[in-house]
Amino acid sequence: MSFKKIIEPLKDNLQRNGIIKPNPLQTEILSKIKGGKSMFVIAPKNAGKTTSIVISVINKLKEAFEDAPRALIFVKDKEEALKLAEIFNTYKRGTDLRVYCAYEEHNMELQREELYLGTDIVIATPKRLNRIFYLNGINLNLLQMFIVEDADFLFRNNHFAEVTRTPESISRCQYLVFSDKFDARFERWQDTFMHLSEIIELE
């Protein structure tokens, strides 16, 4: 997919930041993501995985809609959440899309109240998202995109199990997992909620 096929504000923001055309990874995956395909995207660091996430989410959601989030992105910790939110804020300029970060270091009740006010994109750590969800603090009924950024972190501190629980409450969704390498434990996801997924590997 060329950048000609994305919404104008996003195209303008990409150009403003020196991104004129898709890199090899984006050429391979952006059109598939736009088409709704669930995927494991395996590529080395600096291949453009994070930018691909941001481009795909903004281009798919386009504008604010109701109160419940339509994209959920799991990250390792507060630092990664805030870093990803900053990238989203750079590339969503000119849209009214709302981005919210949920992580352990923030007050739980305040997070529930803020989420209730409405958001389109939630960037969360697995532990905090699960706590908010089981306290009925987030509605996942409108979720369209379930994404894990840099999934290597899942295999520490029980994160894999926490992320695995979330799809049990989602009826239909696109799943995108980005990682430096394919871990054999991902096969459990292929056997359940990602059974129709494709594996894209970039050397």
From TrEMBL:
Cited SUPFAM superfamilies: P-loop containing nucleoside triphosphate hydrolases
Q: Which Pfam families match?
A: DEAD
Q: Which InterPro entries match?
A: DEAD/DEAH_box_helicase_dom (IPR011545), DEAD_box_RNA_helicase (IPR050079), Helicase_ATP-bd (IPR014001), P-loop_NTPase (IPR027417)
In Gene Ontology terms, what is one molecular function of this protein? helicase activity
Tell me which UniProt keywords the record has, alphabetically.
Answer: ATP-binding, Helicase, Hydrolase, Nucleotide-binding
Coiled-coil stretches are: none
All copies of the Helicase ATP-binding domain together span: 30-200
Q: Residues of the signal sequence?
A: none
Domain of life according to the entry: Bacteria
UniProt-listed PANTHER family: ATP-DEPENDENT RNA HELICASE DBPA, ATP-DEPENDENT RNA HELICASE RHLE-RELATED
Q: What is this protein called?
A: DEAD/DEAH box helicase
In which organism is this protein found? Mariniflexile soesokkakense
